[in-house]
Amino acid sequence: MTRSDPVVHDALWRGGWYRFAAHLASPNFGVRPRDARVDLLVIHSISLPPGQFGGDKVEQLFTNQLDWDAHHYFKTIEGMQVSSHFYIRRNGDLSQFVSCDDRAWHAGASRYRGRSNCNDDSIGIEMEGLEGDLFEPEQYETLTSLCAALMANYPIAHIAGHEHIAPGRKADPGAGFDWPSLQHSLGLSSRYLPRTPIPD
After folding, report:
1. Which residues are catalytic?
2. Per-block average pLDDT, block size 10, for the chain (200 residues)?
3. Architecture of 6-56+83-192 per CATH?
4. Does residue 21 contact residue 126 with C-beta atoms inside 8 Å?
5. CA 58 to CA 48: how far, in whole Å?
6. Would you state the torsion angle of the CA atoms of residues 61, 65, 69, 73, taken in this order, to the nearest 10 degrees?
7. What are the sequence ranges of the domains in the chain?
8. CB-based contacts of 115: which residues, under 8 Å, 6+ apart?
9. Residues facing 42 on adjacent strands
10. What is residue 2's predicted lDDT score, i.e. its pLDDT?
11. What Å distances lie between residue 12 and 9, 125, 152, 168, 184, CA to CA?
């Protein structure tokens, strides 16, 4: 079936929400600019507290329910209001917090492919992990399926890491992320991927 097939569209997407994700709506989002062309996927990594996996702290952060007093690290980010469109756990489970038709707050100050404010025209995907470390096969399996579905529904022309759109400020997902594997799994040419290698 083709990208424009309404049966495929209705089966996978409804108002920017992906069928195969658990939906946990975040209040942290906005309307995209009217002329925004959603053509960038941004890969992040996150764990709360850093290096601790499992639990529901990331979901709580994205939905403004995190108890800032529950861990000393949380005091360093107290009051932060952020979100991502998607979150992929270590076991491959997928959650969605913001409709892809809306603007999630994941990129911050950023610039890529000649454009700034990447939140305006990108879709953010958080991988549960620590920047620089390895990710699980189950995460790549979910990520590949998600990227394929996004590319069938949006004019995605670029996939980059947070480190590529905010160099010097962010370093995730880091050297442990397997870009060649993602490229191969999606059957993409190199023009979709970051142009410059990740610095050591």
Report:
1. 126
2. 46 96 98 96 98 97 98 97 98 98 98 96 98 97 98 97 97 96 96 65
3. 3-Layer(aba) Sandwich (3.40)
4. no
5. 6
6. 0
7. 6-56+83-192
8. 121
9. 124, 160
10. 39
11. 6, 17, 10, 37, 23
